[in-house]
Structures are given as structure tokens and as C-alpha cells.
Amino acid sequence: MDLKKHIRDIPNFPKPGILFKDITPLLKDPDAFACTIDMLAERYTRMDVDAVLGIDARGFLFAAPLAYKMRKPLVPVRKHGKLPFNTKSVKYEFEYGDNVIEVHVDGVIPGQRVVIVDDLLATGGTLAASARLVEESGGVVAELAVVVELSFLKGRDRLKSYSIHSLMQY
Hints:
This protein is about 30% helix and about 35% strand. With about 170 residues, it is an alpha/beta fold.
């Protein structure tokens, strides 16, 4: 299935000069969404993966069904102040600002091999911060998985020490 047919361009969102890749048409189409999850599951059921980490918020949309399908723990990474238990946090920069993300201190078990899932790779800030949280928790980043990669923003350059899998590139 050509998943690119299910991605909509939104110019000047969330601010002027940004061409936003909208995944909601993909989510709206049950076959396209199922295909997306199946493609990820096919890859990660063949790898040594102990847990699936999903990044707030759109990463949750792909990480949760992947973790369910693989029968693996789901570890949420959230924006600052959203998790109810003790957390580790990392401040990072992304394509149009900065933020802080957190994971529960018991979210990643030392030695656990984790696939980090997000909807999109742009400049790599969020994924790099999430990888840092995994490593600071004693885990190992098995791979970074994204549905959409904006290659022209060169996010891979920031993530050279990690294996990255993207389902589609622009």
C-alpha cells in the first residue's frame, strides 16, 4: 500500500514557513492504519525488542497498537508534568521551539532493549531526547521507528549512533 497517499500537507502550521505532514487521513483509513502497524510489527517481531516506547502525543497512536500486537510493555514518554509518578526528564530543542519530556523512573528496566516510536522524524530533537531517557534508565535503544521522515531537515545527522527505520520519506 502507498502510505504517502494518506498523508496531507498543511502549509504554515503550526507557524508560518512550516509544511506540516498531517497523519490524520492515515488514521482515518482502517486499511492504511492497519498496514502501518502491520509493517512495524513485521519488523520488530523479528528483532530482539523487550519494550515499545511511545512519544507524546502522536507517537502513542502507533506505539500502543504495536506494543499490543507484539505483546510487549508500552512505555509512555510525556511532556513535562503529565506523568503521575517519579520521573526522569530531559530538556531538548525541536524544529520550532524547546520542551521537556519525561519517563517514569521504572518505565525502562536496565538492560531492556527498546524500540522508540514516533509519528515523524524532523530535526531529531524529540527522538534524541527519548533515546537519552532510555539510556539514562539503563536501557538499550534497539531502533528508532517513525512513520514519516522529513529527510530534508537532516534529523538522521543528529541521530547517527542509532538505527532508524522510517516507513516513508519526504
